[in-house]
Design goal:
It is built from 25 helices and 24 strands. It has 723 residues and is α+β, with helices and mostly antiparallel strands. It has a domain of 78 residues. α23 packs antiparallel against α24. The chain is globular, with a radius of gyration of 25 Å. Keywords: Signal.
Length: 723
Amino acid sequence: MRFISILCLLILTISPCFAQSPRASAEVTTLISQGPLLAVLDHDNSSALSLVTLFRKIHAAQKLPQPAVADGPTRASDLSQFSGTYAQFAAVMSADITRITAGLGIDWEKEILKTYDPKSAKTDAGKTLRLNGNVARVFNERWLGSSDGLFLLSGVVNRMDRRDFDSAHCGELRFIYRLGYEVRMNGKTYASRMPFTVNMVFSYADDGRNCQDVASLWRVAGIDTDDPAMVAQRLLQGPLDFSRLIFKQMEINAEVVRFPSDLENMENRKFAGQAIYWMRIFALRGGKFQPTRLENTPDVQAILKDPAKQKQLQDYLAGHIAEIDNGTFRIPESLEADIALSFSTAGSARMANRPFDLAIGSEQAARIVAAAGVPGRSQKFVQSGAGLLERLNTSSCMGCHQSSSTAGFHFLGVDRFDFGRDADAIRNALDGNELQLPFSPHVYAELVRRKDYVERVSLGQAPNSFRPHPSAPPAAWESGNPAYVVAGDNMPCPLNADLAQAAKWSCNATRNLTCQALVTNAATSSNLGQCVPAAQNVAAGLSCRSNVIEDSTAKTAANNPLGFNLRAFSDRVSKEELVYKLPEGKLSGYGYNCRPTKIGVPLGRVTRPCKPEEASLAVIRPGSVPEEICAIVGGKGFEQMAKGYFDSGIFAAGVGRGLLNTCSPSRFCREDYICQQMPDFVTSARFNVSAPALNNLRSRKIGFCTPTYFVYQLRLDGHPNPR
């Protein structure tokens, strides 16, 4: 016994890693998003997880040329020197944007200051529109090679659950970066992130033990408590050890066109602004990045034109109902597209984001389900033809990215200040343009499922491979079927019997919420509802208008050279109705008001002026979780920024205050809204909020819900021109 004790002492002395015993006590981790930790992992080009470092590793593994890159933060101009990979992607994106702008057939602009210059019009109609800046704003692809453009690590995502789609590996590891910038102009620092993510996907090599060893690596101690430098070393010697990883692909999701709300009103489309998001995946072939097929995203036009492809798709669906029902299927690559465009606003109800509604259609889907004996046998998700289409559509790129997402994204990451020349200047420049939460409601729910999955694999147990609906709330996974928590105010909910019991969830009955159809579209196979409070429980932030959408996608599906849905921006709201009997128009007194969609608030928004005690935030006591808060709302400051670049000082001088709904790590915003952080400038004399009151909110990560495009880092416009 004494010999064993001495041996253990020697081992512990030699190897501090054994002394920590992290894998015996720590819970598994599925997401790394802590700002201080990201700053250690990605500080400059020499950092372990800078995007330049990842491209160097990819080039070394493929024996591709290694360009010389200067020291400093990772700039787009550095990455553009990787000629066969990053530069190849940038060239494809630039060509696609040219095709998109040609296909739009309307006036557009890449430089925000020119949107108000009639002389810059590209069409005769554009001259009139530009008097008020009402033209489509297009992503300026010069950012992809600019020395002003920066790529910042936003998070590291453990996707071991992806082994269900690739049994030869132990799942995936994803490094997510966002495009941002720091620019000095007019004696000021301008800085922001932009709606553009790069997802570098690596596969874990098979460990020969049913992935148990890889899963156990994710028991990392002290992620939220220990020194970030120490935690970074544990990660790099454990789950982030590149000797275990094989590069798979680079995935891009970027907002490429934005239609401002005033343009929507002028063109009678009546959406509170729209946006198009561009999605492509690049994989190495022949030493170069080439676009590759998008998982479960059908090439609608190719299928509609070719009866053989139609039959191939129908045969696949009929023969793989069980995998589709479980959510662990993949349609044949020969039927998949290599580009996807997704659309917001009201993305979950748009045909543009439901490609299988066109590729298969409701009648054929019903026949496939009936032939398979559904609902005669036990099903987890699919209960009808519409349920089959719901599973297929939400498994496509555009369908998933418009299901309980935030501005077409599921992971945006925390705001960082550790890039560029001056962290304090960047912090000041970002004030009023920061997010409170780093991920979407979908990811919040998914993290619970993924953690259970990795935990079970680490213990040598079989995980539950069922994929819920992407708009479902979190669930407990101890039993065979997920036990969902109830959905809160204005959260999505299933309206009918199209989903099987294991895929259904309900609204919070204790709050008297009922599932109602606030957005309907007769062209789509199904629509989700929202959990709507009764009139006596009306509160700030709630939806107060319902919309009926007249869809244009099906009418133009066969004629667009780029994709079946390029002209889906022509969809329009054909009917609006009030949900509650509330006054509209000018705010007065302290009564609730339904702010109209036309000012840029999707489905309207219940609000009222703040009372003096609410404006100071003093009514929010430590430990309490308020449902309403006196937040910042539009005003002259916001309107001025919409005509140029985001300037925190000018913004603060002109914004107003109003009562809105709160958000937090367990309380999310409804579709087309995002959780914004309360800015530092509210502690100025103009707003009269004390520093302790603001710190009380920050310490509990409480923010407020605002329309997505009211936050400038989620708009492609409102930023300086790249140099």
